[in-house]
Amino acid sequence: MAKSMILAGFHAVGARLRKDPDSIHCVYVDPARRDKRMMQMRDELKELGVRVMQASHERLNGMVSRDIPHQGIVAMADNLDVALSFDELMNNIRPDTLLLILDGITDPRNFGACLRSADAAGVQAVIIPKDRSASVTPAAAKAAAGASETVPVVTVTNLAAAIVELRDAGVTVVGAAGEATKTIYDFDQTGAFAWVMGAEGPGLRQLTRKRCDDLAKIPLTGSVESLNVSVATGICLFESVRQRYNNKK
User: Fold this and answer.
1) 4 contacts 74 by C-beta, under 8 angstroms
2) In a 3-state reduction of DSSP, which class is residue 25?
3) Strand, coil or helix: what is 155?
4) What are 36-69's pLDDT values in tens digits?
5) Whose CA is closest to 236, among 109, 123, 104?
6) Taking a C-beta distance cutoff of 8 angstroms, is the pair 36, 42 a contact?
7) For the chain, how far is it from start to end, CA to CA, in angstroms?
8) Residue 194 and residue 185: Cα distance in Å, rounded?
9) Which of 113, 92, 87, 90 is nearest to 102 (CA)?
10) Which of 153, 188, 203, 214 has minimal Cβ neighbours within 10 Å of its Cβ?
């Protein structure tokens, strides 16, 4: 029997409705919210035959973590597990594989936003360490806007060792680092390729850096010294997408 999970907010609930409405047990809505967006959502739920129950704003607050804005809508649904083992991933490395490796991303919103960018860029899987990493929580699922249910997340015990195995399998692994001498535009990303992103502040761990093929920076011309990790992830991934798109012309 599938485990249940909580989906909070219009993005998370709407994404599940599009993907698998039968997996939703019940949707709780705040009767005080009667704006156009809520009415459209309620009509869609009714059309799909999803059970809807009213719940006060206070009750909805009690159903989710205090730091998650539920927007007046919370769903109880099956947990659609898209987890992938590292062995399964290694068995499916292709010449066009694109991977995202997250090293020490502990903020669930950043993690979710990275998943969203990964989904948009067609990433085959996201690899995270077992320790010192966020996971797919309600906050991450909300930020991912459905991507947490489409992008496989591979959890490994030893991230540095996993990077070595990927390189041995023909994947070029490049870590994003602000102090790098090369830029993200200096690498051929049309073959099997993986970006490694570190946490804001500390960045990539030293051992992770050493295991990468090389390091690259996003050239910044303004006054800011760094970018949010989810923004940087999107920039790096879509440089890969751009190169692959141009390579097919």
Assistant:
1) no
2) strand
3) strand
4) 999 999 999 999 999 999 999 999 988 887 767 8
5) 123
6) no
7) 47
8) 14
9) 113
10) 188
